[in-house]
Amino acid sequence: MRALFIAHAYPRYEHDPVGSFILRLASALRDHGIESEVLAPSAPGLTANDVIEGIRVHRYRYAPRRMETLAYGGMMSAQVRGSWSGRIAMVGLLSAAFAKSVRLLQAGRFDLVHAHWWFPGGVIGTGLRAVARRPLVTTLHGSDVRLARDVAGGVRAFRFVARTTDALTTVSSWLAREAKQLAPEANPIVAPMPVVPGLFHPSDSRDDNRLLFVGKLTEQKGLQHLLRALAIMKTAPNVDVVGAGRVDDVHLRELAQQLGIADRVNWLPLLSQADLAERYRGATLHVIPALDEGLGLTAIESLLSETPVVAFDSGGLPDAVVPGKTGILVPPGDSAALATGLDNLLTNQAERTRLGREGRALMIAKFSPDAVAARYASIYADAVRHRRR
User: Fold this and answer.
1) Residues 179 and 234 both lie in one domain
2) Are residues 74 and 129 in the same domain?
3) 14-19: long-range contacts at Cβ-Cβ below 8 A with a sequence spacing of 24 or more?
4) 157-191: burial string, b at 16+ Cβ within 10 Å, e else
5) Same structural domain for residues 159 and 296?
6) pTM for this one?
7) Per residue in 24-48, pLDDT tens?
């Protein structure tokens, strides 16, 4: 079987963390007899055709070079809402992606289209399903569900995609429930993305007083809650913030100054997967104060490194962060509870060690590439049979 992936976020080069879970899925599917190629938007410095880790990537131009900024930065929705140039670029992205997809399907004999995120990928996929008559699998990753609620007409458009696709998958059970609320007629299948146990593994030594935060510095990711927790904790850990510089983070740096903790915050840019793996291995705890996170792949990567997670009990995070087995969950938005949870684990090394070991075993069983690829191979086969009928 051959599958065409459609994604607006995908690794631009080897070890690029952006959309790396999609590359991991494509790689894992090869062991199950499924060859995949990827269609992704262009961006400065990228070639029209590339091969990353054996997976062929086709990139399409969708606007003048200076306007090709919608993809890869995690700010697509804000750009489209905030300017006419962003809206024009989005029209170009949808039309260019559809045209390129049709040409690839005509030339490549693909059996199936797998759209990642219902928008824009799923919208493009519904057109391909009608015109090129290929079965469509659409995966929800989290941010796209928020988009459906936040944008005018989003719920109606989401329902159309959910009704049209042959299989709708979500990366967490929470996302499946959210999708069902938005489109009651949908039948979402929980099927997470894979992680790589070989890359994310434990170390013999780690810092005993260092927290780790990984993610875009947006309000939804919740770094502000962690900074406030740091200011009231009984212990005084340092924290590495990975993801600085992707959006305007001046207000967060100012908040750290106001709280008197700026000297304990280490601001780091987006890191490669290999460099990020080292940060996981060296951290005492990984903190995820996000709200409505689709799944929280960083929690899984951290647990594979035997680093326990302290997170808000929100979104898809409970699929990975199991209280008493892999970490601690505290009420969403509660900085005081977050501070207490962090203090409790920072002062209990034996408990951290136990949670880390149990966490790695659980993540391997649930999110290994082979387990996830087998799940998607079955979903693909069902979608093809459904389309033929």
Assistant:
1) no
2) yes
3) 14/52, 14/53, 15/272, 15/273, 15/274, 16/272, 16/273, 17/270, 17/271, 17/272, 17/273, 17/276, 18/72, 19/116
4) bbbebbebbbbbbbbbebbbebbbebbeebebbbb
5) no
6) 0.81
7) 999 999 999 999 999 999 998 899 9
